Structure formats: C-alpha cells, structure tokens
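It would be a great kindness if you could assist me with a short task in structural biology. Thank you for your consideration; the sequence and its tokens are set out here.
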Amino acid sequence: MKQAIILAAGGGTRIWPYNEVRNKCATPVANEPAIRRLAKQLREAGIRNVAVVVGVHAGSVRAALYGIDGLEIAFVTVQGTPGTAAGVQAALSVLDTCQPFVALHGDIVTTQATVSRFLESARRDEAVTVALVQPIVPPERRIDWLGAEVKEGRIEYVEGHSRDCEHRLCGMYAFSPKAIPAIHSNPGIMTHVPVGGMPPVEAELAQSVQTLIDAGEEVRAVEVEGFLVDMDKPWHILEANRRVLDEMSRNLSGSSVHPAARVHDGAEIKGFVVLDEGSEIGNRVVIEGNVFIGKHTRVVNGAIVGKAVAIGSHTRISDYCLIGAYSVVGNRCIVGHGAELDGVMFDGAYLYHYCEISGVVGQSVDIGAATVCGTLRFDDAETIHHVKGRREFPTHGADATYFGDFSRTGVNVITQPGVKIGAYTCIGPGVVVYEDVPSRKLVLLKQQLVEKDWGPERYGW
C-alpha cells in the first residue's frame, strides 16, 4: 500500500476561533502543522503518493505541506463541505483505483507507532476495509463519537451518536479496490444511528463502511497505539500538544546543543536540552526538565522553563518569566518581564508585564500588561462549553481561555474560566470577560465617574 488520501476540506467550525484564518488541519502542534506531521508519518510508514482534498482555507493546507521530501502530493479541490465520503470520491480521480489506499482525516494527531502499525496490518489483512479504532474511556462520552462495535478484531457495526459502542472510529481507513463502489454509493447522510438520533446531512465515510458490513464484507479493526487526538474543538489543541510533548520528552535520551548555540554556566538545567543553531540559554535561567528550542532563540535573564516544553525559532523568553510544563511557544514570539504561560502560543504572539495566561494564544495575539486568565470556578467545577448550540464537557482545558488569531487585550483584562475570544477582536482595558466574544468585535468598558469638590479645606486648618 503506497497511496493515501488526506481529507482537509472541511470548515472546522467547531474549533472556533481557530478556524477563521486557517484550515484546522494546519493548526500547529509542537510548532508543526498537524497535517504536515501526519504526512511525514505516512511517508515513514511507506506511503509515496498522497492526494490531499482541500476546500476551506486551502492555502493554509498547501503551505503546511510545502517541501516534504519523499512524497508526491496532488491537491484536489472540492466546493463547500460535502463530507468525508464525497472528499474520498473526488480524490479517487488522481489515484490508481486498482490498488489499495488509505483515507484519513487531516486533523488527526497520533503516534508514528499507530500509523506504522495500522498500515502494516492493512497490508497483511485481506479484509475489504480496515479501520483504526480507540476504546472510549470515561470521562469521555460514547455519544460524542462515531462508534464501532468491535469483537475479536472485527467491526460488527458502526453507529453515529451511539449509546452502546465501546470503541470510536478514529478517521483512518484502509480500503481495497473492492470497497470503491460502496464509497460511490454513499447516501449523503449517516443513516446508521439509534432511534431519535439526528445526523447532519453530509456524506460520512463511516456510512460507506457500514454499507460494506451490511453486504457481508469483513471490516477489521486496529487499535491506536499510544494516543490519538482528533482536533475538533479548541481544547483538543491543548490535549494534542500535551500528548506530543510528553512523547517527545520521554523519547529524549540526551542533550543536543548545536555548535553555534550557547549555554551559560550560570544556567540551572535539570533535564536534557535540544538547542538549535544560534540559540542561547543565558545566565540565571532555570530549566526544570527536557526542553526543545529552535533556531536563533534567546532564553535569558532568569527565565524559568518547566518540563517538556517546546520553544520555536527567533523567539525571546526573558526577564524572569515562567513557562509552565507541557507548554509550547511558537516562532517569533516574546514572553518577557514576569509574564506566565501555561498552554500554547502560536507564531508571533506577545506576552509581557506580569500577565498570567492559561490556554491557547492564537497567531500574532497581543496580550496587554497584567491580563489574567481565571482558571478556577468558585464551585470548583469545570466549565461546560457550548459549541454550535451543543453542550460540551471537555476532558482537557475546560477552564482555559482561548484567544483567537490576531486578537488583542488592553491592560488589566480578566478572563473567566472557559471563555473564547474571537479572531480580530479587541478587549479594552479593565474588561472582565464572562462570556464568549464573537470575532471582529471591539469590547470597551463604559465607566461612570462621580465628581465632587475637594481641596485644602477638607484637612481642617
């Protein structure tokens, strides 16, 4: 099996506010677009030809896949968001349909071991279809996923909004040529749902898998090895980055310092360091654990960096700031002067002057001095989110703040746990943000002033 289809055409509206300027498949994970990371994993597993289905924000996907050696990439454009099965149908026009192929969602973040093992199993197996699955472990809910009933490595049935399935489909399938008629015969809606289920009107690839099962074809299951995150909602960005950083850190067996990089004797380093060309770890810096630092980046003047942290290129971390464990700082960023970060910063973002940020900071976001993210509710419960009218119960990052791309805050802004601020939005000084703020808005605090007479006569002599 040498060919694959990566689906990257959807609008990704559930990951708002990070869908406004990019396709969600191009969202950075440990400073690398998710789809680029996935394409490289396919290459390492033996894939040589990839058809990438693009639609919404296609430019961000093309840019993310630029310059990957060892892969022949063809882009197929579809209009709107027709669904995963329709995307595969479109991509078949550039594949050799006499040969088996892999079809997968471009927003999957998983391990190389998972991708390699899945493809290895698919090459050995004679089943018409092989699907990647993962056990649903509480507090995750079965109804949040496309479910699969798995027995002895075989999928008995798949179901949308399932109340019973103990595995979920992970959006990675291997198809033999025999499966193509079922893909072309997709009804345009997920018909296999429990009574009362209400599927969206879109061609879901899982329904084609069910069509094959109904026809008596064997569909085999391969379980995820390690982790898999489907980046569908904003808190999945935090989860994906944490999982990848944990794997990177555990696999690091020693330090690697480029000859053109420098580590000051006055730095306190408790773990391994990967330090690229032209970068510097300066005096009084504290590194609490393994850290990955890009090119021409300065970590100087008392900065404190937690364990399992990735910092991009051309970035400055300085002046007694604090980068929490399992955090990511992007390229061309500044974190300085007592600022604190616990989460993920995209490229070009700026934290300064005693701000305390927990969550995801989008591209080129300007955080005003003393902006603070609330992270603990008075009832000690986790925030229930609402995404497109549906209640969501995140297992990671429920109380984080999500700053959309190219947004800004003024001084002394406070965000309450779990709020999302849209792209191109400004929050004025002194505002307390209690609810999600739409994109392209300016929010200002209207202050009421009281003026009275005053003077030396008030002091009594």
The two ends are 95 Å apart (CA to CA). The helical segments are 34-44, 58-64, 84-91, 112-124, 180-184, 205-214, 234-251. Residues 237-443 form a domain with the UDP N-Acetylglucosamine Acyltransferase; domain 1 fold (CATH 2.160.10.10).
